[in-house]
Amino acid sequence: MTLVFTICSINYLHQAITLGNSVLKFNSNYKFIIGLVDDIETTNNMVKLPDLDILPINRIIDNDILCSLKRRYNIIELNTSVKPYYFEYFFKICNYDNIIYLDPDIEVFNSLDLIDNLLNENYSCIVTPHCVTPKEYGSMTESLFLKVGIFNLGFIAIKNNIESIKCIEWWKRRLYESCYMNTIQGQFVDQLWANLFVCYFDNIFVLRDVGYNMAPWNLHERTLSLKNEKFYVNDIFVLVFFHFSSISDNNKFISSHDPDLNFNNR
C-alpha cells in the first residue's frame, strides 16, 4: 500500500489539511497521515482537529532523542530533522510498500500514480530538482541552489527495500548531528544532504517532469494554463502538484523567494 504523509507543527496544520484533502481527492486508494511535531492534546485544545489521521512525533521518537533535537533546533530545523524518523517508522512498524512525502504547503492537482509506478519498477528513491533549465536572474539563482541543495525536498518518494533503509539510516544520523539552516556554514536543514543520495545509494531517480513540484523558484521555466478544467504546465504537461512555498499574502508578489515575480508580470 502507498502512504502519502506530511510533517508540520500546529502553525501549518491548516495547510496540511488542504494538502491531505487534495491528495485523497485524486488518489482515493492512498493513505494520508499528518506527522505532527507538537503535543496532540495541546493542539486539540487550540484547534479543531481534522478528519485525517494524525501521528504525533512523541509516538515515534524516543523521548531523550526528541528532547535533544528540540534543544538543538528551531521549529523549521526540528520539523525537517524528523523526516527520516517518520520514514523509518512507516516502513518498519507499519510496513508500507511505498511512501511519498510532501511539504504541507503543497497542493495536489492530479494522480500520483507515476511516482508509485516508478517505485514499483526499479527505483528506490525519487527526487525533483529545483529547476531543469538554467536560471540566471531573480533572487533564486543557480548559485543559491548550490547552497540550499540541488533537489527540493518538499517532495521525496521512497520504496521499502534494503537500499532505502540504508539511505534513511544514514540520513537520520546526519540530521541528528547537523540539520541547521546556515548556508554560510554549508548547511541547509535536511535538503542539502540529499545532494549525496545519488553518490552513495543505488536506483535514485531524478524526476524532471515539469508538472511535478512546480514552485516559485522554477517559474522562469513553467507557465500554467487551464484546459477542460485541468491545469497544464507549458501547455503540455499535466500539473500534478504545486509547491506554494513562502507564498505572499499581500498580492504584490507571488512569493518572498523572488520579489521580482509578481501577478502583473505573470
Give an account of the 3D structure.
The protein has 266 residues and is of the alpha/beta class. It contains 9 helices and 15 strands. It has helices spanning 13-26, 40-46, 63-72, 75-81, 83-92, 113-121, 142-148, 162-177, 197-200; strands at residues 2-8, 31-36, 53-56, 98-102, 106-108, 125-127, 155-159, 181-182, 187-188, 204-206, 212-214, 224-227, 230-233, 237-238, 241-243. The strands form 4 sheets. It has a 7-stranded mixed β-sheet with strand order 3-2-1-4-7-6-10, sandwiched between helices. A 3-stranded mixed β-sheet has the order 5-15-11. Helix 5 runs antiparallel to helix 8.
Task: Give the structural class.
Answer: alpha/beta
Uncertain stretches: none
Q: Report the major sheet.
A: 7 strands, mixed
Shape: globular
Mean pLDDT: 92
The proportion of residues in beta strands is 15-25%
Question: What string gives the helices and strands in order?
Answer: EHEHEHHHEEHEHEHEEHEEEEEE
- Count of alpha/pi helices: 9
Determine the N-to-C terminus distance.
40 Å
What's the number of extended β-strand segments?
15
User: What integer value in Å does the Rg equal?
Assistant: 18 Å
Secondary structure: helix percent: 25-40%
How are the strands of the largest sheet arranged? 3-2-1-4-7-6-10
Overview in brief:
The protein has helices at 13-26, 40-46, 63-72, 75-81, 83-92, 113-121, 142-148, 162-177, 197-200; strands at residues 2-8, 31-36, 53-56, 98-102, 106-108, 125-127, 155-159, 181-182, 187-188, 204-206, 212-214, 224-227, 230-233, 237-238, 241-243. The protein is an alpha/beta fold.
